[in-house]
Amino acid sequence: MKAPLVVGLGRIGVAISGLGPNLPSVDGASSELAALATAPAPGVAVALRAALQLGCRARAVGSHGADLLGQLARSALRDAGIETELLRAVGTSACDLVTVAGDGKLRAHYRGDRGEPIPVDAAAALNGAAALLIDGSEPRDQLIVAEAARKAKLPVIFDVSELREGTSDLISMCDILIASEREASELAPRGELTDALDELIGLGPRAVVITLGEQGAIGRHGTALVRCPAFASEELLDSYGAGSVFHGAFAAALLSELPFHRCMELGAAAASLSLRELGPWAAMPTREDVLALTRTRRAG
Q1: CATH topology of domain 5-21+33-299
Q2: Do residues 129 and 5 make contact, with C-beta atoms less than 8 angstroms apart?
Q3: Which of 8, 25, 182, 300 could link 133 by a cystine bridge, Cβ 3.0 to 4.6 Å?
Q4: What is the chain's Cα-based Rg?
Q5: Model confidence pTM above 0.90
Q6: Average pLDDT over residues 110-131
């Protein structure tokens, strides 16, 4: 029996992360880096790899930059075992520059040039799929394919990476909405998280999860309210991209037909394990790692 196929649709960017003893000062001397990593940026690429690690097959659909960074991202996906035949090279790569240091973290983002729009073949994208992951990076294409997925009764899981034009339409079309506390507060500016969950459910999804970083996650599925504490991480190095790992692990758990609270638990465990190295791509946990961590909580 084949593993379920998860399709991720979006614009694939690149993250260049450096680890140093301290953040560089403006116009100061250059700071030595202890490590440097270049990998696909958080978003559907990282979510797909997390789903793949937890037992799914994965297909990337959409675009990446038609430059060296874009080719590096595509190669990284292909080497990981993710299908890349439906990715198109266009424009220039979006790039996140991240410096992780003992005195904080510095991030800069270059949006890149998206180039001319390339239509996405929804039928080809969803052929054989069991679920669709979107991140809001390509609202027009993601809305078209999400509509097709809903008609085919495939779950659409939307991890809100950034609020932009078209985000509200995507929320109304998704089955499960995942948002960080920051995005949730912008979408539903309420004082209490439970009120925000109610308001977000009212926008169309059948379930909503708000990730809370070190505080874990809170979610609502129907009338059920679920609180999932974070897993303690003794090897915390870099939290950048942990939300995308949660997204992919949640999808894999959902396709294993686990209950909602277990999907949140596996997502939280995978996110916690992704903090051990520079960037989530290098620290991506295996299925065995994730299950072992969740067992420690139940054993306790």
Answers
A1: UDP-N-acetylmuramoyl-L-alanine:D-glutamate ligase (3.40.1190)
A2: yes
A3: 8
A4: 18
A5: yes
A6: 94
